[in-house]
Amino acid sequence: MADHMAKRACEWLRFMGYDVEYPDVHYDNEILKICIENNLILLTRDIEFYKRYSLSIFLDSTDYKDQVSEIISLFPPDKKLFTRCPVCNSILVDVSTDTLDPLKYTMVRQKFKTVKYCKKCNKYYWEGSHYKNS
Fold it and tell me: pTM (2 decimals)?
C-alpha cells in the first residue's frame, strides 16, 4: 500500500509488475486499517505514520525515482515488467494494434504489433520514450 505521499512511485512500481495498492481513502487511520486487515506493507514519507505500523517502510527521498530504487533494493522485481495498470493496478493484457482506431493510434499501429490494455480503465499502454528513458 502506498500512501498519498508515494503516489508517483506507486504508479511506476505497478508498471514494473509490483502489486501496489493506492487508497481511495485519505485518512491515515483508514489506510492503516486496510493494511492491517490485508497484511500489507505500507510505503510512506510520513515519519509519524511510519512509526505507527511495524510493516511500514519510510521512503526517505521526495523524488519518486529514488523511492522506486529504494523499493527495488528491498524487493527485487521478478521480471513481470509492464504487466500492471499504473492507474488501477489491474493486470494488463496484450491486444493487437489492429484493433486500435487507425486515426487515433496511427503511430502506435506503425511501430507496434501489440500493446498492453487495461480492461478496467479502458486504456492502452505501449513502450514509448518514457519507458525507454526510465
Answer: 0.78
- Least trusted range by pLDDT, from 17-21, 85-89, 117-121, 130-134: 130-134
Rounded alpha-carbon distances, angstroms, from residue 99 to 27, 58, 103, 110: 41, 43, 12, 13
Query: CB within 8 A of 33, min separation 6: which ones?
Result: none
CB neighbour list of residue 9: distance below 8 Å, 6 or more residues apart: 2, 43, 59, 64, 67, 68, 71
| Alpha carbons within 13 A on the beta-carbon side of 110 | 5
Strands (E) across the chain are located at: 42-44, 56-58, 93-96, 114-118, 123-125
**Is the CB of residue 43 less than 8 Å from the CB of residue 3?**
yes
Closest CA to 18 of 26, 27, 9: 9
Q: How far apart are the first and last CA of the chain?
A: 22
